[in-house]
Amino acid sequence: MSGTERASALYDIPGPQARRRHLLYGLASTVVILGLAAWILYLLFDTGQFTAVKWRPFLYEGIQELLLEGLGNTLKAFALAAVLSLALGAVLATGRLSEHRPVRWIATLLVEFFRAMPVLVMIFFIFVALKVHPLPALVAGLTLYNGSVLAEVFRTGVHAVPRGQGEAAYALGMRKTQVMTWVLVPQAVRAMLPAIISQLVVALKDTSLGYLITYEEFLHAGKLIASNLDYDLPFIPVVLVISPIYIGMCMLLSWCATWVARRERRDPRTKGVDVAPAAPVTTLPGRE
Amino acid sequence: MDVLTENFSLYGEGFLGTLELTLYASALALVLGFVMAAFRVAPVGSFRVFGTVWVTILRNTPLTLLFFAVMLGLPRFGLVLPFELFAVLALGCYTSAFICEALRSGINTVPVGQGEAARSLGMSFTQSLGAVVLPQAFRSVIPPIGSTLIALAKNSAIAGAFSVTELLGTYKTLSELGYNIIWTFVWIAVGYLIITLSISAVFNVMEKRWGVAR
Q1: Closest partner CB to B57 (pick from A25, A125, A247)
Q2: What is the pTM of this model?
C-alpha cells in the first residue's frame, strides 16, 4: 500500500500497466479541468469583471470598515448563537434523559418540532410575527434549531457510553445526578466533541440567513457595495472577496473538528466510547 | 383558522412550489452526489482532487451566499434563466456535497475482503460493484441520505426570499391582505412538517426493509 493508493473494496492496488493508464487518464482530465477553469477566467475578463472601476471601492477606508463591521456582526451573531444553543442543548438533553415521563415527552416534542422546521421559518416568524429586532430574531432562530440538534448529539453521546460504566457507578452508590456528572457526561462530551464543533459550523453558515431579515452582517455589507452604481455594480468582485472569507472561516472550524476528532481518538480517556466522526449527526427525525 | 380555508389556492401554490423545488433539487443532488462520490473513490488522482475540492468548498459555503452568487451573479455572465431553475441549481449543487460524503462513507463501510472475494471469484469490476459493493453500501446510506434530503426540503425556504414561489414566501401576500400573521405562520409550519415528516417516514420504511444494524 503506497502513499497515494489506498486499499478499497472497489479495486486492487494497481500494477505498473494500470498505473500508466491511470496517469494517462489523470493527465487528460487535468487538461479538461484546467480548460474549464481557463474558460471561467476568460468569461470573467470578457464581461469586464477585472476593470479598475469595479475593484476601486475596496481601496476606500469607508468600504473596508463597512465590510469589517459586517464581519464583526456575523461573528457576534455566531458567538451568541453558539453559546445559547450549547446551553439550550444541555437543557433539552437533560429533559430527554429525564426519568419523569412528562418532562421527557415535552423535551422530545420540542426537539422533534424544531428539528423538523426550517430554521428560516423560525427566524421569519420571530422577526415578522413577534416584531423582534433582526439580531435577537436571528440568534433566537439559530439557537432553537441548533440547540435541538445539539440536544440529540448530547443524548447520543450519553447513550454511546457503555452500560457497564453507569452500572458500576450505581453499584458504588452514586445517585443519578452523580453518575451523570461524574461518569457519563464527561465521556459523552469528549466522544461527541467533533460532532458538536461540526454543528457549530452549521450555525456559523446559517448566520448568513440574517441577510434575509436585513441584519447588517457580512453578506449585507457585500450587497450594499455590490448595488452601488458609482462603482459600476461590482457584483462579481464582491462575491470574489467575501466568499473566500466565509468559506475560510467555516473551513477553519471544520478543520478544528477533524483535528479534535483525531486527538480524542488517541486520548486514553475516550477508551470506553467511540469518538464520533467530524460531521453533523444525521439521525432521521422521529427515531431513537 | 379561516386563513387556510380562504387562501387555500395560495397555500397550495406555495406548497407545490416547495414540493417541486425539493423534488428537482433532490434529483440533481443525488445524480451529482453520485458522480462526485465516484470521483472521490476513483483510482485516478486528478478525479479525487476535483471531488475533494468540490465537496470541501460547497460544504463550507453558506447556502445564502451560494444563492446570492448564483441568482444575482450568473446573470452578469449573460446567463439568464428562470429563478426556479437557478434555485434548483444552487440547492442541488449544495446538497450534492453532502450526498457525496454520505455515499463515500457508505462505500467505505464495505470491508475490503468483500471486494477481494468478489474479484477472486472472477467477477469483473462492474459485477463486483453492482452485485457486492453497492448493495452493501446502499443499506448503510439510507439514514444519512434521508436526513440530507430533509435538510434540502428545509433549505428550499431560502429560495422564497429570492423571489421563487414557495411556501414561506406566501406569508408576504397574506400579511399584505391583513390576515393574522401568527395563524399564517402556523399553516406554513404545518406545510413544512408535512413535507419533512413524509420524507422521514419514507426513509424509515426503507431503513426497516433494507437497512442493517451495524
Answers
A1: A247
A2: 0.91
